[in-house]
Amino acid sequence: MPHEVRGVVARSKGAQVAIETIVVPDPGPGEALVEVRSCGVCHTDLHYREGGINDEFPFLLGHEAAGVVEAVGEGVTDVAPGDFVILNWRAVCGQCRACLRGRPWYCFATHNAAQKMTLTDGTELSPALGIGAFAEKTLVHAGQCTKVNPAASPAAAGLLGCGVMAGLGAAINTGGVTRGDSVAVIGCGGVGDAAIAGARLAGAAKIIAVDIDDRKLEWARGFGATDTVNSRETDPVEAIRALTGGNGADVVVEAIGRPETYEQAFYARDLAGTVVLVGVPTPEMKIELPLLEVFGRGGALKSSWYGDCLPSRDFPMLVDLYLQGRLDLDGFVSETIGLDDVEEAFAKMERGEVLRSVVTL
Q1: In sequence order, what DSSP letters do the residues of 324-350 get, joined into one string?
Q2: DSSP 8-state symbol, 172
Q3: In the sheet that 227-230 helps form, which strands lie side by side, from edge to edge?
Q4: pLDDT for 55-73, tens place per residue?
Q5: What phi and psi values does residue 265 have, to the nearest 5 degrees?
C-alpha cells in the first residue's frame, strides 16, 4: 500500500517551499523504502528551489540524509529492513565503462528509484538528486543506501551523504593530500571545512583557511586549520605564499566555485601542485588563464564531484572515524530543526549564520 507522509516541496521557481502530503509507493524491484531520521539543508536544495539545476518542478527537496530501511523490493540483498543507512546520490551501476575499468567513483550510469513519488492529486515529483529526503519517508534505489554503524548520530552521519563527503573527498581522494603536505582551502563553509578536516586526517603539516568572514575562519580553526587568511583584508595568494616559504601550497582546494577564487587557487599553489575545484559554478561563469602558466607550473588542475567518493568504501570508514573521536561530524551541525523550518534555514544559510541546519524526524 502507498504511504502518505509529510514532505517539503518547491512548486515553482523562487517560490517559498511548502509542506505537502507526499504519496510514497512500496518498493519495487531494486528499490528501498527508507524512514528518514535526518536531512541536512544543503545549498543544492536551494539551487533546486531557485531553478538553478533544472526546471522539472515540483521538486521534493532534501538529499543529505540518514535513516532506517523500512522495506525493500525484489532482488535487494545488500540492505534489509532495520538497517541504519546513509543515502547517496551516486549509486554505482557496476556495468558502465568507468565501473568496468575499476573506477566506480566515476560511474556514468548511476541508479535511482524507477517509481515516482507524487502529490495526492497524482502530480509526479522530482526528488532532489534522486533522493527527496525532506520527508518522513522516501523511496530510493537500494544502491543509494549505504549501511553504517547505527551507533552514529543520524544528524551527524547524514552529512556524509553530500557536503561533508564532498569536502573530505576533495582533499583526500581528489587532491591526494598526504602527511607533511601544505594545503590551502578557499571558502570555509561546510564543504571547505570538511576539506580542512580531511587534510588534517591525512596528516597535512600546514592547513591554511581562506575566507572573508572572521566567524567562518574561527570555525575553520576548530576543524584543523593551522593558519587563517581574511581575503577581504589581505591578498590571499601572497598570504598563502608567505605561509609556505614563498612557494605556495602543495594542494589548494577551491570550495566556492567562482572564477576569481579559482584564479587565486591557481596562483597560490606550488610548482607541480594541485588545484581541486569542489565549489559549484553557475553555467555562465568562465575563466581565462595564460596557457603558458598552465604548462609551466605543472601539476594538476582537477574537479571533484562528490569528493570522488565510493559510498560503500568511504561512508562506513568515516563513520568509524567519527565514533572513534577522530572526525568531528557533530561540529558541522549548527542546529537541528523540523520540516516546517526549512525555508528559514535557507535564509540562515544565505546569511552565513550556519554550517548546517539539519532536519531531524
Answers
A1: TTSS-SGGG--EEE-GGGHHHHHHHHH
A2: I
A3: 227-230, 206-211, 182-186, 249-254, 269-277, 300-303
A4: 999 999 999 999 999 999 9
A5: -60, -40
